[in-house]
Amino acid sequence: MRLSRYYVPTLKEDPADAEVMSHKLLMRAGMIRKLTSGIYNYLPMGLRSINKVAKIVREEMDRAGAMEVSMPMVQPADLWVESGRWDYYGKELLRVKDRHGRDYCLGPTHEEVITDLVRGEIGSYKQLPVNLYQIQNKFRDEIRPRFGLMRGREFIMKDAYSFDKDEEGAEKSYWEMFEAYKAAFSRIGLRFKPVQADSGAIGGDFSHEFMVLADTGEDTIASCKSCEFGANLEKAKVNAPEDSCNSDDSATPALEEVGTPDARTVDEVCAYLNIEPSKLIKTLLLKVDGKEPVLALIRGDRELNDIKLRNLVGGNEIEMADEDLVKDLTGAPVGFAGPVTLSKNIRTFADHELCLDNDWVTGANKADTHYRHVSLARDCEIDKFADLRVIEETDSCPECGKEIEFTKGIEVGHVFKLGTKYSEKMDATFLDENGKTKHMVMGCYGIGVSRIVASAIEQNHDENGCIFPPAIAPFEVAIISLAGKDQAVADKAEELYNEIAKLGVDVCYDDRKERPGVKFAEADLIGYPMQLVLGGKGLKNGIIETKDRKTGEKGELPLDNFVEAFTAWRKEIWEKWGMSL
Ligand code: ATP
Ligand code: MG
Questions:
Q1: Which atom of ligand 1 is nearest to the CA of 413?
Q2: Distance (Å) from CA 448 to ligand 1 centroid
Q3: Nearest atom of ligand 1 to the alpha carbon of 159
Q4: Residue 322 has what DSSP assignment?
Q5: At what angle do helices 44-63 and 167-188 cross, to 10 degrees?
Q6: Which helix (H) or strand (E) segment is 51 a member of?
Q7: What is the whole-number distance in angstroms between the Cα of residue 411 and the centre of ligand 2?
Q8: Which of 24, 477, 531, 543 could form a disulfide with 14 if both were Cys (CB 3.0 to 4.6 A apart)?
């Protein structure tokens, strides 16, 4: 490819709306252009990189035995009604009507369509397992599209769906995809970590997110400094302090009402009573699926993990009770709820560390009043002590007990066991070996193809621009010709360009009549991992200069035996990225 004939509209300035490096650089390097909020054009350089990611993902999916299909982007509402998600999915689902007034949506994901496809085609255990995937544009009307390709509304995703005849098969399919993901992300050149994620109603160890480690990530992950443990914060377990539970409340004084005028928040109550937040129990009144109220109790200085609570309580949606419900149930304004008496009428869940003490401060279900000396055992009825709070960095590893740390991550992939959630709702069945009708056991597996390009830049850039991993760089090598009017240099550069292209290596030839400074700056901005610079002096001395974009290291290759020397240098560059050719 000759740059003189290529469309690379680079920009001098960062766009005003770009907050993260990948967004700034993708725009400045002329790889993407915004059409409207969260919707982008992929320009030639950007698309090359996206296509390389897609190619690697495709190869690893094929290797794992998945088969590529392509499903429509426009999906009929009926299927979503059948699965129960037409109402549940909310505003991220972009709904449209056709000329007959029938409802459709733009596919944010394809569980419904694939289940519909497979139920119509597969009827016997002999046809299972199957794993079907596609690489395609998805549309999600994200509430906050931002960061360029990181969180778009229209974006490219690889989504795969496995169908098995039993749990065992589904688990095998799951781990095959898990391994395929590891292989794909390694080949792409990402520094990543698979972490445990919430698997909702399915339970078990069958949801992992693949996180690219980067400070600008929107997710926080807890990882162990010693063992392999890593989990999304919403999933990370906090172990029960069972050994040190203190069940003897014989020394706890009798309940005592204390006035706490206008003190509602943990901080206000603690300041008023001059106690530490860790001596107070926060009482959260919630509503399950808009109906049943439940109480969640956690220590004053902790944060409730609503996913843990939801998994414990059951139901789809848990929300905080509104003011009216609080008044109704507690007889007091918001800020004074407590478990004494209330826990007798309402299902009550307490974080398991609350067993460590039996002399607490809680709300007294009375305006401007709290209780001192609350013993959960004596004064309340707790349905269950369980893990309810968000893990903190000072907690120990739930698997090995050693120190953990928090890091930021970008989710680039997700593997998930669905079980029979969709096959039951949509009646996707098959006949087993004994002629019995059974529901297929499913899994779903997503990779954010366009997000990966942004993530790779987040991980690899400097003040001058992108530093692409060689496997997904728009071009792996750039030849920068400093020929000016020197035809001999131009001819030689052209010859080297052809030789590299013949090797099957993606090479970009900067044959433009630009100043050297402009060419160097642009090559750095776009981030080709390898740069070759040919000028008059080099030609005279029989060498071409090299630059490793990652380390900035410069060197030279002989023009005699160029192909051999180049091949060796290329191998070296890939190895520096921890990859083999
Ligand atoms: P997130 O929590 O980041 O919104 P998700 O849990 O909604 O992601 P999945 O439904 O598992 O994502 O989709 C599979 C993959 O698609 C994700 O791992 C991510 O890499 C990518 N993806 C999801 N939403 C977007 C988006 N708005 N823009 C770009 N890529 C996305
Ligand atoms: Mg999302």
A1: 18
A2: 6
A3: 14
A4: P
A5: 140
A6: helix 44-63
A7: 10
A8: 24
Other CB atoms within a 10 A radius of the CB of residue 138 amount to 21
Of all protein residues, the one whose alpha carbon is nearest to atom 28 of ligand 1 is 151
CA distances from 454 to 151, 412, 459, 462, 519 (A): 10, 10, 9, 14, 24
pLDDT tens for each residue of 303-338: 999 999 998 998 878 899 999 999 999 999 999 999
Decide: 249 in ligand 1 pocket, CB within 6 A: no
Which residues have CB under 8 Å from 246's CB, separation 6+? 355, 356, 357, 358
Cα 214 to Cα 211, 244, 376, 485, distances in angstroms = 9, 38, 43, 45
- What contacts 512, CB < 8 A, 6 or more positions away? 3, 4, 519
Binding site membership of 157 for ligand 1 (Cβ less than 6 Å) = yes
pLDDT tens digits for 174-231?
Answer: 999 999 999 999 999 999 999 999 887 666 679 999 999 999 999 999 999 999 999 9
Is pTM beyond 0.90 here? yes
Of residues 408, 410, 393, the one with CA closest to residue 453: 410
Atom of ligand 1 nearest to the CA of 140: 27
Q: Which two tokens stand for residue 427?
A: 């009646």
- What token pair was written down for 580? 């083999």
146 lines ligand 1 (CB under 6 A): no
State the Cα–Cα distance between residues 279 and 191, nearest whole angstrom.
42
Q: 457 alpha carbon to ligand 2 midpoint, in Å?
A: 21
For ligand 1, whether the C-beta of 451 sits within 6 Å is yes
Could you tell me the end-to-end alpha-carbon distance of the chain, in angstroms, rounded to an integer? Answer: 22
* Cα 525 to Cα 22, 341, 387, 456, distances in angstroms: 12, 66, 48, 14
Q: Per the structure block, which two tokens stand in for 521?
A: 């700056």
Cα dihedral 10, 15, 17, 19 in deg (nearest 10)? 80
526's tokens:
């776009």
What span, in angstroms and rounded, lies between the C-alpha atoms of 190 and 200?
A: 28
Q: From the CB of 52, is ligand 1 less than 6 Å away?
A: no
Residue 11 backbone phi and psi in degrees, to 5: -120, 145
Q: What is the pLDDT of residues 368-384, one digit of tens each?
A: 999 999 999 999 999 99
| 492 CA to centre of ligand 2 in angstroms | 51
Count of CA atoms in the C-beta half-sphere (13 A) of 75: 29
Strand partners, 297: 283, 350
326 residue type, one letter: V
